[in-house]
User: What shape does this take?
Amino acid sequence: MLQLIFTFIIYGVSIYFFYHHNFFIGLTLFVWVIFRSLEDSLVKLFENTNLSELNKKSNILIELKINLAELFKSKEILTIFEKLKKEKKINFQNFSEWIEIMIENYKKKFNNQNDFTSKDGERYIWEVVKFNIKNNILWKNNQIDFNDSVYHEIFIPFEYKNKEAEELFEEGLYVRVFVVNGLIKLQIGRYDEKITPKFFRREGLAVYQTYSTITLFPLMYVFQEIPTNYLNLSAYATESWKNIFKKDNKSDFMADWKILNKEIIEYNYIKDRLALNQPGNDRKFNKLYQKFYKKGSKILITENFKDPYKKNKDINWSVPGWMEDNDIHYLNKFLYILIANYKDLKEKRERYNYIDYYEEIP
Assistant: This one.
């Protein structure tokens, strides 16, 4: 407020000097007032330009593998099976038998025979999708994805005949994996009101859950180099937003969205420092990085994600711990995640591949 009053005073002084024909001082003060008025807009313009340049340098792989064998054994699938049976949408009484039929329907529809059992007796049926973010362009399975969103969905019918006979109204189960609000979510669903596991509001225009989350991965807390627009930020996808549908609810339905917006500012700060290779001894960077690391670690533990290539050493804050080798691998029984950053590939080739001399390094 005081800054605004001071700006108005300087504006009045500049008019005074103009009135007394002292144009140099008047013009100088007037330009200063204009700059002060537009300062925030100029800073935002610079930041957006800077972020745009950083996004153009993106060269990131996100590979996601869904283990359908474990997915179909989840408690969420069992709940849906019981509801489908009750509503007579399927003719199976045995859960295990129904699972095998659904797996066979998947194999036939997508011509995927990647079904094997490991030495320790674990069964794996991988549905694989690869995303590449290159120069702020999204590629999905080696083709440009004009949806511009990290999103993959498959539909598995309850009864599979053949591709020609498949109709849009055929009933079945949707399985999807996608990024929203900086999290990778694996979900099943597109439920109707008869088989939904949860109602948010029954009276009037009903509001009910259409998907169940099987597992989630803390992408933005583990890896801070993805362009912000690919984090797919949405207030409607926050947990607190659902409070708006609860009767007589007085809690802040925008609470999660406010927290997320604050974290995105912090995320962009970390991303900028990493992109410029300037984390150094920046106290703010270290503080924010550890905050994200702790929050990400908590979610990883909750969702039982393990790093199959984990090194037996503690985190080293002088080098960002998640990405010491420019890639990360995480796995739980439902989802395998590989994220690789190739931003240094060009520099490494320039330094090591293209030279034809030997330099002895002391």
